[in-house]
Structures are given as structure tokens and as C-alpha cells.
Design goal:
With 381 residues, this protein is α+β, with helices and mostly antiparallel strands. Helices cover 22% and strands 33% of the residues. The protein folds into two domains: 2-233, P-loop containing nucleotide triphosphate hydrolases (Rossmann fold, 3-Layer(aba) Sandwich); 246-366, OB fold (Dihydrolipoamide Acetyltransferase, E2P). Strand 1 and strand 2 form a beta hairpin. The protein is globular and about 75 Å long. Bound molecules: adenosine-5'-diphosphate and magnesium ion (MG).
């Protein structure tokens, strides 16, 4: 298990820059065998958090427990070489002059975990087989594809058989097809070996598809934690709704107060929308945004309910094979919206269409970009 409490890291001022708090009071837990992902835009503090856990960066404050070992507290700092973690980076960090075999064997021939040669050989070949490189053990990394080089860097992290593996955007340098394949392979290797994975990415699709649990980071802080479904379907605020998946965020005003149980009516440029309750007593007249996912908006002829329907004019049609993207202007005030619809339906630019969305697919969010309902859970210290 990885347990991080109130972790903070400030980079000190230099002649050209002021002091900067890259990680601010971050707390999360990763259970044994769990695949947990920190996701957020570039510069939000993901790498710094990982480096603090690996022992490559000294935090200002906080505590870190790896398995049953406290590696960081007020009184204690365990150095990187004494922490039972492996790390895989975006850059493959393999040595070009050594063979694949020697690259993978290297961690076993240095440091405190020295093994005898037959054990090294057995361990290395087993690990190379696991990542599908047993056939190229005698090659140099320059004779490998990008995907093979990334497998090699994974093998080098796995060869130690660490209980925890930290991944820093390991797939970012691969092309889209390979990235998808490696994503699936990584997940199946992690399941098969059962190690605990802490993964960092700016790619929300990667986070949603790989993870058991996700923490969304912004400016050094965690702004929401949950399962991929929770983060996608119940984003806590506008920032998360926009960052994870795509969202149409339509401004509006609450018509009648929210009792906390029933649907709520919101006056918007699309007309009055019935929306799932906020779980919070929003007052009549309160300004809000309604989040509508592009794939939840449908043509109403495929749809029975009479509520939440509006007319729209199609502005652009982008055929994408599996689905088609439409940009429309909807409702009386011509609210710009993006929709993702079945490609089977033929729609042309300039068409007027009738659209609808279910109440439960309309999520009300506070007007403020970063505010959240219900109030964010206060992390215990
Ligand atoms: N060694 C450093 N010195 C000063 N600032 C740094 C250093 N490393 C990172 N930062 C700053 O800290 C912030 C977080 O960086 P990082 O953890 O690398 O973000 P991420 O991995 O999410 O892109 C960034 O604004 C970055 O510029
Ligand atoms: Mg980074």
C-alpha cells in the first residue's frame, strides 16, 4: 500500500524565479494491487509528487508510507535506494551501448540486492519474456522500436520485483496505436504480477482506461478523487467536467429551490432543463452551469421523453467512423454545442434538428470554475 499524507514541496527561489509550491497538501491512498492514477495538466505537480514518493525529491512536509514502512515523516527520511519502489519514465532511460539483456540485468548487479549470476539470468529472462522481449535479448536498444524500448524500461523496473511501481507518463512518446496496445499490456502485466501501481499522466483517456482509482490534480492540489466512473459521470466542478472528457457547459439560473431530492429546473439558453438534483440545496435564482456530455445529447426521434428537448442548427459535421461529431447552435439563443452521434444517421450542415437529453444526464455545477457541491471532503491528517 502507498499512503501519502499532506505532502508539500516548494522549489526554492533562484535568481530568475520566485519560490514555487509545486505540491500542496496532497493526500491519497493506494491499496495493495491497485492501479491508481494522478491526472492533470502539465505543470500541476504530478512528477514532483512521484519523485517525492521515490525519494528523488525532498518534500517540505508530509508523510509517506510504502507497505508497512514509513519512508517519510517529521522525523524520518529514507533515501531512494532504501525504498522498495521501481520507476518507469517517459524517456526510456536505457543505455544504448548495452544489450537488452544487460540493460535489464543491470539493476540486479549493483547495490544492495546483488544476486548470483544464475539467479540473475533466470530472473532477467523471465522478466524479458513477460514484456515480450525474450527474442531480442542480444540486441542493442538502438535496434529496437519505440514500443520495445519502453518495454525494456518496464522490464528494468520489474526485474527487482518491487511491490510498488511508479510510472511517469511512460506511454507519451509512443504513437497512438502503440500507446493503446501498451496500455492494455501494462494493465494485464500489472494484474498478473499484482504489484501496486501509481501512474501519472496528463492524458484523461489513459487515466480512465487504466485505473481503479483516479486523483485529479490542479496547481499542486488534488481536486477530486474517485473511480473512473465517478470522475467521469460526477465531476465535482466545471474544471474537472472540462478536463475529463468533453462537456457542454451551459449557463443557467435555478428556477425553483432544490429540495435536495427531486430534479431541479434550470432556465438556460436551451430553454428550461430538468436536471438531476445537486444533492445540495441550491436556491432559486442561483446562477449555475449545466454540464451535458456530447454523447448524451440525442436526436429526439430516437427518444421517448418529452422533457429537455430543443431545436438546433447543424453548423459542422465531422465524420469519424465509429461516431460523428457535430457542432450545432441550439435553443433560441443559439448556444454553441458539440455532440457525438451515431455515424449511421446522415446529417448535413445547415439542417435543423430536434435534440433531447435525459434529466439524469444533466449535471448542475456551481458557476465558479473551482467550487464544488457537495463541499469537498476534508482529508483527515
Ligand atoms: N527543479 C525544479 N525547480 C523549480 N521548479 C520546478 C522544478 N521542477 C518542477 N518545477 C515546477 O513545479 C511545477 C510542477 O512540476 P511537475 O511536477 O514537473 O509537473 P507535472 O509533472 O504535473 O507536469 C511546474 O510549475 C514546474 O515548473
Ligand atoms: Mg511530469
Amino acid at each position: 500500500m502507498i499512503s501519502v499524507r499532506n505532502l508539500s514541496k516548494t522549489y526554492s527561489a533562484t535568481s530568475s524565479s520566485a519560490a514555487f509550491r509545486a505540491v500542496d497538501q496532497v493526500s491519497f491512498d493506494v491499496a495493495d494491487g491497485e492501479f491508481f492514477t494522478l491526472v492533470g495538466p502539465s505543470g500541476c505537480g504530478k512528477t514532483t509528487t512521484l519523485r517525492c514518493i521515490a525519494g528523488l525529491e525532498k518534500p517540505d512536509a508530509g508523510s509517506i508510507t510504502l507497505g508497512s514502512t514509513v519512508v517519510l515523516s517529521d522525523r524520518l527520511y529514507v533515501s531512494a535506494d532504501r525504498r522498495d519502489v521501481g520507476m518507469v519514465f517517459q524517456s526510456y532511460a536505457v543505455w544504448p551501448h548495452m544489450t537488452v539483456y544487460d540493460n535489464a540485468a543491470f539493476p540486479l548487479t549493483v547495490g544492495r540486492t546483488k544476486l548470483r549470476p544464475p539467479e540473475v539470468k533466470e530472473r532477467v529472462m523471465r522478466t524479458l519474456a513477460l514484456v515480450g522481449l525474450e527474442g531480442v535479448a542480444e540486441r542493442k536498444p538502438t535496434q529496437l522500436s519505440g514500443g520495445q524500448q519502453q518495454r525494456l524500461s518496464l522490464a528494468r523496473a520489474l526485474v527487482h520485483q518491487p511491490k510498488c511501481l511508479l510510472f511517469d507518463e511512460p506511454l507519451s512518446n509512443l504513437d497512438a496505436k502503440l500507446r493503446e496496445r501498451m496500455r492494455a499490456e501494462l494493465r494485464s502485466i500489472q494484474r498478473a504480477l499484482g504489484f501496486t501501481a501509481l501512474y501519472v499522466t496528463h492524458d484523461q483517456i489513459e487515466a480512465l482506461s487504466l485505473s481503479d482509482g483516479i486523483a485529479v490534480m490542479h496547481q499542486g492540489r488534488i481536486i477530486q478523487q474517485g473511480s473512473p466512473r465517478e470522475i467521469y459521470f460526477s465531476p465535482a466542478n466545471r474544471r474537472i467536467a472540462e478536463f475529463i472528457g468533453a462537456s457542454n457547459l451551459v449557463s443557467g439560473t435555478i428556477i425553483a429551490g432544490d429540495t435536495g431530492t427531486d430534479d431541479v429546473a434550470v432556465r438556460t439558453g436551451l430553454g428550461d432543463l430538468r436536471c438531476s438534483g445537486t444533492g445540495h440545496r441550491a436556491a432559486a435564482g442561483e446562477e449555475v452551469f449545466v454540464s451535458l456530455r456530447p454523447e448524451d445529447v440525442r436526436f429526439t426521434d430516437a427518444f421517448t421523453s418529452e422533457v429537455n428537448t430543443f431545436m438546433a442548427t447543424v453548423e459542422t459535421v465531422t465524420f469519424g467512423g465509429a461516431s460523428t461529431e457535430l457542432h450545432v447552435r441550439a435553443g433560441e439563443s443559439g448556444v454553441p454545442m458539440r455532440l457525438q452521434v451515431s455515424s449511421r444517421r446522415i446529417v448535413a450542415e445547415g439542417d435543423t434538428v430536434m435534440l433531447g437529453i435525459r434529466c439524469q444526464d444533466c449535471r448542475i455545477l456551481p458557476a465558479d470554475m473551482d467550487a464544488a457541491w457537495p463541499p469537498p471532503r476534508i482529508e483527515e491528517s
